Amino acid sequence: MHPLHPMFVHFPIALLSASVVFDLAAEKWNPEKLRIASLYPLLLGLAGALIAVITGVMAEESVEQSGAPKQVLDVLEIHEGLGFTTFWIFAGLLGVRAVMWLDCIKERRRITLALSLAGVAVLFVASYFGGSLVYEFGVGVAAQR
Questions:
Q1: Residues 6+ away with beta carbon under 8 Å from 95
Q2: Domain map of the chain by residue range?
Q3: Could you report the per-residue pLDDT of 78-101, keeping only the tens digit for each?
Q4: Is the CA virtual torsion 127, 129, 132, 134 positive or negative?
Q5: Greatest CA span in the chain, whole angstroms?
Q6: Cα-only R_g, the chain
Q7: How would you write 91-144 as a 3-class SS string?
Q8: Whole-prediction pTM value?
Q9: Comparing C-alpha atoms, which of 119, 134, 62, 132 is closest to residue 88?
Q10: Whole-Å CA distances, 98 to 5, 43, 104
């Protein structure tokens, strides 16, 4: 199988992280414009995360069918769980921000900032385990002849 997952994961990592940076900057400078600016990378990063999750599930199936050792499958499950968690944290963040934008509830920047920081923390841990799969266990890396 072609390694689609590694082709797509870098975009949501960068975009979701940029969204959090804008949210952090909004706490100190120009809150309205920076909060709006954080929305664009959040939307694009979430779309990219959906693609990364779909391609990750496809990659997982090929790893499982290859007869990978239990240790690799355990790390793969952790990576998968953290990937799904990351997606749902940022999807929830987008939902909360939409509800606040529609004035259904009062805006609470600290809540959205906490969700952003939690999301990026889980994202970085998921990335660590993804890197471990490649660099420690060689998942998806063809043996050299």
A1: none
A2: 4-135
A3: 999 999 999 999 999 999 999 988
A4: negative
A5: 61
A6: 17
A7: HHHHHHHHHHHCCCCCCCHHHHHHHHHHHHHHHHHHHHHHHHHHHCCCCCCCCC
A8: 0.90
A9: 119
A10: 29, 11, 9
CB 45, CB 23: distance < 8 Å: no
In the block, residue with structure tokens 């990063």: 45
Residue found by looking up tokens 């385990």 in the block: 129
Is the four-CA dihedral 65, 68, 71, 76 of positive or negative sign?
negative
Give per-10-residue mean pLDDT for the chain (145 aa).
86 97 91 91 97 94 88 96 98 93 79 94 98 91 62
pLDDT computed for residue 143 by the predictor:
60
Query: CA distances (Å), 41 to each of 6, 31, 38, 51, 56, in order?
Result: 19, 16, 6, 15, 21
Rounded alpha-carbon distances, angstroms, from residue 94 to 32, 99, 101, 116, 139:
16, 9, 10, 10, 33
**Tokens 């939902």 found at:** 95
Residue type, 38: S
DSSP 145: -
- Are 51 and 144 spatial neighbours (Cβ–Cβ below 8 Å)? no
